[in-house]
Amino acid sequence: MIGPAPGVTGTAVVGVDVGGTFTDAALVHGGRVVTAKVPTTPGDQGEGVVAAVRAALGAAGLPPAALRRFTHGMTVGTNALLEGRVAPVALVATAGFGDVLELRRQDRAHLYRLSAAHPPPLVPPERVVEVRERCGPEGVLVPLAAEEVAACVRRVAALGVSAVAVCLLFGYAHPAHEQRLAQALRRHLPGVHVSASHEVLPAFREYERASTTAVDAALGPVLRAYLDRLGARTREAGLPEPEIMQSSGGLIDVAGAAANASRTVLSGPAGGVIGAARLAARDGAPRAITFDMGGTSCDVALVEGGVPARAPGTVIAGHPVHLPMLDVVTVSAGGGSVAWADSGGALRVGPHSAGARPGPAAYGHGGVEPTVTDADVVLGRLAGAGRLGGAITLDAGRARAAVGALAARLGMDLESCARGIVRVANAEMARAVRLVSVERGIDPRGATLVAFGGAGPLHACEVAEEVGADRVLAPAAAGVLAALGLVLAGRRHDLVQTVLLPVGGPVPVADALAPLRRRAEAALPGAPVAVAADCRYRGQGHALTVEWDPGTGDAGLVAAFHAAHARRYGADAPGRPVEAVSLRVSVEAPGEDVLPPAGGGHREVRGPAALPMAGATAWIPEGWSARVRADGAVEARRGAEGAAWTA
Question: What is the pTM of this model?
């Protein structure tokens, strides 16, 4: 476990996850888990975060001084990118290459929709500052003169921006020019956030590196302002400084998060994936698919052998972010997703959401549009839910009125319309499950769907049936598993460096790995180190990431790559030369170990039935059976009977 911060004597640990509708807290103390759920505060997420911590402390009967650690997952970065509320950024680029963000990869936004356009770049042309310098693969071609550095600082200062992204040609391999520019900008413009590509992403592919650096710069001031406000609130409340969840599924301190904002773009869903992966490992499920359905979206990820799948990057709001992260697919289907009729009279659901305010009509906060939650209320699936989040009493009359108005427009009866809303939402979520399984070459039929989030257990069985899976597991803390996952997560540090080395050549790949490994070990002394390499056959354009034990040398890396290529593409080429493109090193300290052992069942239920849970409701459809286990989890199987249950 991670030890307490200096001067901290508390024994409790709390994790707080911000969702679109609710902010959840899970507090662990003395072997028990206490949860709390409060409405999200969109104007300033920190207000709801502190309120959730206070609610959890109150439920546990503990003072703020009892907290040893405070972990936090957020959606600040993602929301800022999706809504375009980012800081004004300047881009410093090599002369002649200032249009890298505008040109992208010279591909179309949509293959068949010729009118579709890419979103505008984060840095418009008028805020691009080109500098006369040039590096090639072997080193400096055109030196960076002192007068160029001074001119760059003057031009950036004249733009009046809040942040600067510095991305020069071959800056990942030869960073000296970027270092000089970044140092000068930080020295002369102390109020301006500076992101340099050799610090953010020292990897090749010019557009992706520039885009990631620009995202880091654009989010830097936004995230710092949020963390400053949150820090002030936590100090006032007597709480420890929060640790922030990264997209990679590991925690980082506040200073590290503020300095590396791009590493938090998937902070929100990461906690849930870590919690579900740990649960799947404890449960002995060899393959699991995490299913996190909240108020505005559904996040899905693949877990093999208790280890969540990882990816080298993602695209958010049309902007590539190429950093180590959990491989999460998100679709706009949540409990608050609004149902509507398109111009052709077809029933649609989302992507618009009712959010936290006004929320679904059933919440009684002024919402009048029909949502997935309203459809669930109409169908009687939430009849026993009582008060949601401790503050919201469901109003079935308002839900029926909202769904009924849409039913009238579509010429349907009330119940058929509600069932249609649920089926459309389920189909969209099943698409996400197929994206992380079938489209990765994985058969979902043998997987366990780990359902959580406020609405996950309500829809998991039907989504599992859509993809052919026949087992669903909803943990006792399903409604707040993302918050509990933040408690389970440990500190993590990820490093990547492009090397472009022939495997088996004159320079052993392990020699190029040594500097990265030393940096990782210094970041988290004593924590386990994992190594991977992006490899390809010579002549290929893209690489596969393969885990590698450096002790096996280049021969071991070649063998691992051949095996990975065969698994992914069905064939390999043993006689073909292999190239190591980039090296990846991660170091992770273990988090808290608070999950109880998996328990046997003590109550069995046949569907259709609604099973109230803490912070959620599990819906068991017809043709499914479920048992409520001694550990509080609900395990459901399609067509299962008593003899089919396993511990």
Answer: 0.91
